[in-house]
Amino acid sequence: MTRVTIDAMTTDLDGCCRGAVSPGLSEATIALAARRFKAFADPTRLTILATLAANPEPVCACDLGDDVDLEQPTVAHHLKVLRNTGLIVAERRGKWAYYRLQDDAAAWVRATLAGLPR
To answer: What predicted TM-score, i.e. pTM, was given to this entire model?
Structure first.
């Protein structure tokens, strides 16, 4: 069996490296996407985002716990994380908060959800 050394590999690859094309994303864009993907990485938050994306009108916080089988304080924590990432916004109506996707993030959320395997 012939062993390939690093020197042999380098010699074999000479001239083939053309360099990768940079995507041209700013550090701020990458940081924002990383925060958003981190929020997406939790099953509860993903379910909440999918529910909000499926509803054209804001959804009451009391209804957002139905699909995740969690107590309201835990759901409230996940909603806070999503608000802090700029993915959702809340609107007070009496004693309840109603949530919807943040306008600037809505298309991104829907596109990301659409890309999930079925």
So the answer is: 0.76
